[in-house]
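Reopening this ticket.

The earlier resolution said the output was attached, but the attachment link was broken on my side. Pasting everything inline this time so it's all in one place.
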Amino acid sequence: MATPSSAAPGMPAAENIRTIADLERQSAQEKSWDVRFSERISDFVGSLTFVGLHVLWFSGWASWNALGPEGLRFDPYPYGLLTFMVSLEGVLVATFVLITQNRMSRDAERRAHLNLQVDLLAEQELTALLRLVRQIAERLDIPPGPDDDSRAELLMRETNAYELMEGVKRTLNRTDSDAPGDEGAGSDRR
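Inline output:
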């Protein structure tokens, strides 16, 4: 089995990989300096290096202010200055993480829209293909199987994305109302 890196040029998988890589590069180039800065901060905050530095900082701070020379201790127990600094750092770190998450959410939404567009296009192509296959079968006098004809009729209809979405909403709402603890939930379902 070929891996993506060994896919021959011109093969659909290799072309798709290049397209995805190009889209990711384009997205990275479109990021503003503040977004890139925020991502770097978030990446660092989410690393073991960050944890290690904090362990060293906190233990050094506590050790110095508990065991250091009496006149040089600047933040005696309960370490009010340290608490203030850590709280301020927490606010800033949370802000950077939220900025990064917002950007990631926008990227995910953009990809979901692209995926939906591709899915709708694929559905339209498959419907057209089913119709063409049906015409070929009719021209060659190939009868459909006993269950194939009615199912094929249903599948050859144009799919209405709005109707599907409403069906999903109704089903999800019905499922939500059938949650444990609801009185009489599901009594009208079969």
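Reporter confirms the inline version is readable. Confidence is low (pLDDT under 50) at residues 183-190. The chain has one domain: 30-177.
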